[in-house]
Amino acid sequence: MAGGKIRKEKAKAPSNHYQGGISFHKSKGQHILKNPPLVDSIVQKAGIKSTDVILEIGPGTGNLTKKLLEAGKEVIAVELDSRMVLALQRRFQGTPYSNRLKVIQGDVLKTELPRFDICVANIPYQISSPLTFKLLFHPTSFRCAVIMYQREFAMRLVAQPGDNLYCRLSVNTQLYARVSHLLKVGKNNFRPPPKVDSSVVRIEPRKPQPQVNKKEWDGFLRVCFIRKNKTLGSIFRQKSVLLMLEKNFKTLQAVLASLNGSTGEAAGMDLGDQSMGMEDDDNEMDDDGDVEMDEGQGGEFKEKVMNVLKEGGFEEKRSSKLSQQDFLYLLSLFNKSGIHFS
Hints:
Blueprint: E1 17-19, E2 22-24, E3 32-33, H1 36-46, E4 53-57, H2 63-71, E5 74-79, H3 82-92, E6 101-105, E7 118-122, H4 128-136, E8 144-150, H5 151-158, H6 168-176, E9 177-185, E10 190-191, E11 198-205, H7 214-224, H8 232-235, H9 239-258, H10 263-266, H11 299-312, H12 324-336
Parallel strand pairs: 4-5, 4-7, 5-6, 7-8
Antiparallel strand pairs: 1-2, 3-10, 8-11, 9-11
Helix pairs in contact: 1-2, 11-12
């Protein structure tokens, strides 16, 4: 305004942080470990052998990579950012480590991973869930993975029945692996610092792997955790759940009829994607539209479902309190009655 003072705007500090001339982008999950003692602690807790082939995901500029090369036989680093790939190659070029470092440029979720003995990684947090299960379902066995996660996600991985953070992710992960919390990492150990604290988790795949139909198990848990603090009786009375299960049941009966009653082949069949279109995360669903059927509604099939719950003593129980063995037992009861979730 005329006559008013002209206020000088302060120059805004750049939002990107730098190391070696490279800017890091928070939006891409680029948070580089800058604390050497912490890097040493992670490598030590990983229990790396001198003969190990190590998979590193998101190596960045190589702070962790260097320690991994010192500890193991070979490091296979998967990095999406071409700038980081170049920085990594330059850092180790002409050093004794150069012939023991293999860099793969690409999206780790879309990359066919080679054989490895151990995975050690500080990953972009937005790929935590899909990456965890990509590793767990890797076709060749590996000893363990030591991974930096956002703290809340890490605590979900290790949560036990009755814990506030116990959820479908907890049950799913712990079916396929032994999971343990190693250490908490404050946000100031990174450049640039993330908004939240982190945790390092050790994941050891179970050997042998559990003999379950992955789609069936996941579909079953999706239903059980629609509302983890509701009773299972209430959840399985919901109209959308009963309609989905009845559709699966009728599909299986039709398959059995076409096979002239040959149940051996059909019992493990994949009935297609009948999982009610739920999102692949741990958020509980809204109740909108998921009304319970009245006592007189649903007919014989509803009674069949309720009888399964009553037989196992699960009607008044809640998913938030059930153990992995409880879920496996309940799923076996449903399958025994011809009720399937995928």
